[in-house]
Write a structure and sequence with these properties.
disordered N terminus, 5 helices, nine-stranded antiparallel sheet, 11 strands
Length: 199
């Protein structure tokens, strides 16, 4: 398997880690440049979408492949666009799009989609139009800085990243991955310290 797919999956999984971390920390004076809202000010709609057209978070791999085959906006090539990753129970579907969508990525864990990412064609659709559409439908973002706008509910996170990628994330699965990565990191730190202590 190409290292490209492994790197891509890691980037998709980890690209929102800093934003997740920022939401769990107290805002410091150095972060005042970023426009954040408090929980009381957060007007994110409780019906934040978990799907785009016929594609949705939680779909099985077979359901995803079937939906992509029927969608006119994608040039899905079947199993050639599916990669099984050397990460526990994870796979990646990467396909090209047409007109408005340049590329689409779907990351699965335990055979269920937990991240959908759509890179849009900025020659046809612009960031401002997409951002204002989301504000109109779902209210002000819960996190905003020059590179990303995030809307979230208890189970879903949707982000618009510059130049123009829209991501849908299942928060439960993603939080589980974040916690696991923290455990792995703490284990590595302990092993390193044990090694040093032997000298």
């Amino acid at each position: 398997m190409s290292h490209k797919y492994i790197i891509l999956a890691v980037l998709l999984s980890l690209s929102l880690l800093p934003v997740f971390a920022q939401n769990t920390q107290t805002t410091t004076a150095g972060n005042t440049a970023a426009a954040k809202t408090t929980a009381a000010d957060d007007k994110t709609d409780s019906k934040l979408p978990r799907q785009y057209r016929s594609l949705s978070l939680g779909m099985s791999l077979d359901e995803l492949k079937d939906a992509l085959t029927k969608e006119a906006l994608f040039q899905f090539r079947g199993d050639r666009d599916v990669s099984f990753l050397p990460i526990r129970d994870q796979s990646l579907v990467e396909t090209t799009g047409m007109t408005f969508i340049k590329r689409a990525f779907f990351q699965l864990r335990d055979a269920k989609v937990f991240i959908m990412a759509f890179t849009l064609n900025t020659e046809i659709i612009d960031h401002y139009s997409m951002f204002t559409q989301f504000v109109k439908k779902y209210g002000q973002p819960s996190y905003l800085d020059p590179s990303i706008a995030v809307w979230e509910t208890d189970d879903t996170r949707v982000a618009i990243e510059r130049p123009l990628t829209v991501k849908y994330i299942d928060r439960a699965v993603f939080n589980e991955l974040v916690n696991e990565s923290g455990l792995i990191e703490s284990g590595h730190v302990q092993l390193r310290q044990d090694f040093l202590d032997e000298f």
